[in-house]
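ZP: hey, is the nicotinamide-adenine-dinucleotide complex queued? I don't see it on the tracker
AM: it wasn't, my bad. submitting now with these inputs:
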Amino acid sequence: MPIKVALVGYGTIGKRVADAVAMQKDMKLVGVTAHSYSFNTEVAKEKGYRIFTLPECEAELKNNGIKTEGSVQNLVEQVDVVVDCTPRKIGKDNIEKYYKPNKVKSIVQGGEKHATTGISFVAQCNYNEALNKDIARIVSCNTTGLCRTLDAINKEYSVQSVHATMIRRGADPGDIHHGPINAIVPVLEMPSHHGSDVQTVLHGMEIFTTALSVPSTLMHVHTLTVDVKKKAVVEDIINLFRNTTRVRVVRNAEHLRSTAEIIEFARDLGRPRGDMPEICVWQEAIGIVQNSHNKILYMQAVHQESDVIPENVDCIRAMTGFKDGQKSIEMTNKTFGIK
Ligand code: NAD
């Protein structure tokens, strides 16, 4: 029997999770929600997804030729797991309003706080923590990116401490409301919250982060300085990242020198929506400094719209009792074309 999944909040993340679930042989996408009428709803209709809504939105959808199949409550009643991709704080409310009363498992996204679920998830780091659990949270795109590469370094070189700076895209490509369009905006929070979010997955890691936003929509870039216990050489770090799942080493020689070229590369690979769910580490930007400490330096690019999508798929499997995390990651990667 396939795992029956509902998608609540069909926006930037939700529409990608819906497509990813629909691609899995062991899952069935029962339906998605529409909170208002938009081109997203038209796409869901064209893809043949069953559409559910809230009573107050029904008329707007009907007037625009969208047939709905019932309420969010009706959808939730039909499934094993709900993936909630609504904007920040709504997921938390939905847990209390719909998911807990209906005894249905639920996954919320990085906009919600760790305390909402008590479990924050990045498949390759802590798959087992979500095994058979009723609620879990997929961490943010930035935290996912930091966790994937830091976990690999930690396992091989034992991390002592980390400083990371996040240069964040100002808005998603389809977002006409946010910026900046001509400024560099520091996050006036020192250190930024991203470091403590990493600790919800990589427990006990000593890390502090700083962040700023720039006028770009394509990806985030992270610069990292990692103090490690064992001596490292650049060639070994390159190989470590090459052998780490959902991490891709990109090179100057390929002309992948910027976020723009990485996204163009993803488009040319034929990735759906031009997505790049792997964290891209620049080979030439991996360095070592050996003074009183062993320091590993690197830079990575994070595609904010897509890196968390495979994590949602693996979390569904973990929560419904699929024990082999490695196997789940392989199954998911195959459907995304991730090598
Ligand atoms: P979004 O605004 O693009 O999409 C949210 C969707 O939820 C919209 O379609 C909206 O109509 C719908 N919605 C709003 N209220 C609803 C309700 N009460 N019931 C059902 N649907 C409702 O948001 P997003 O960027 O996809 O973010 C969703 C979550 O994912 C947030 O927690 C966010 O922090 C997290 N996240 C976002 C990104 C990103 O870069 N966009 C990356 C990682 C994680």
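AM: back. The first helix runs from residue 12 to 23.
ZP: great, adding it to the tracker
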